[in-house]
């Protein structure tokens, strides 16, 4: 079980094509603050049909994108 499982489930349940969450929103959803390990854990998200797009340190946001069927 990953420390970001709650976040991955939230992203999957949302179902939108693409959307943006702030670091604070991610911390609230995941129950843990986003840190450098997020870069390692983000690969798990593909199992939920999504991928991490842009991570903006300046805006403190992460964009999540749905993976198209032909990309799986």
SSE blueprint and pairings:
Layout: H1 5-14, E1 18-22, H2 23-30, H3 38-41, E2 50-56, E3 61-66
Antiparallel strand pairs: 1-3, 2-3
Question: Keywords, please?
Answer:
31% helix, 72 residues, Arc Repressor Mutant, subunit A, single chain, 3-stranded antiparallel beta sheet, alpha+beta, globular
Describe the protein's architecture and organization.
31% of the residues lie in helices and 25% in strands. It is an alpha+beta fold and 72 residues long. The protein has a single domain (5-71), classed as Arc Repressor Mutant, subunit A (Orthogonal Bundle). It has a three-stranded antiparallel sheet with strand order 1-3-2. A hairpin with a 4-residue loop joins β2 (50-56) and β3 (61-66). It is globular and about 30 Å long. The mean pLDDT is 93.
What's this model, at a glance?
With 72 residues, the protein is α+β, with helices and mostly antiparallel strands. It contains three helices and three strands.
Main sheet summary = 3 strands, antiparallel
Q: Percent of residues in helical segments? A: 25-40%
In CATH terms, what is the fold-level topology? Answer: Arc Repressor Mutant, subunit A
How big is the Rg?
A: 11 Å
SS-based structural class?
alpha+beta
Q: Runs with pLDDT <50, length 5+?
A: none
Alpha-carbon distance between the two ends: 22 Å
Helix tally equals 3
State mean pLDDT (0 to 100 scale). 93
Q: Work out the count of structural domains.
A: 1
Order of helices and strands: HEHHEE
């Amino acid at each position: 079980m990953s420390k970001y499982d709650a976040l991955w489930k939230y992203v999957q349940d949302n179902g939108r094509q693409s959307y943006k969450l702030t670091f604070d929103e991610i911390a609230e959803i995941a129950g843990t603050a986003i840190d450098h390990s997020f870069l390692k854990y983000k690969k798990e998200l593909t199992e939920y049909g999504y991928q991490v797009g842009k991570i903006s340190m300046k805006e403190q946001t992460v964009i999540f994108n749905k993976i198209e069927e032909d990309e799986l």
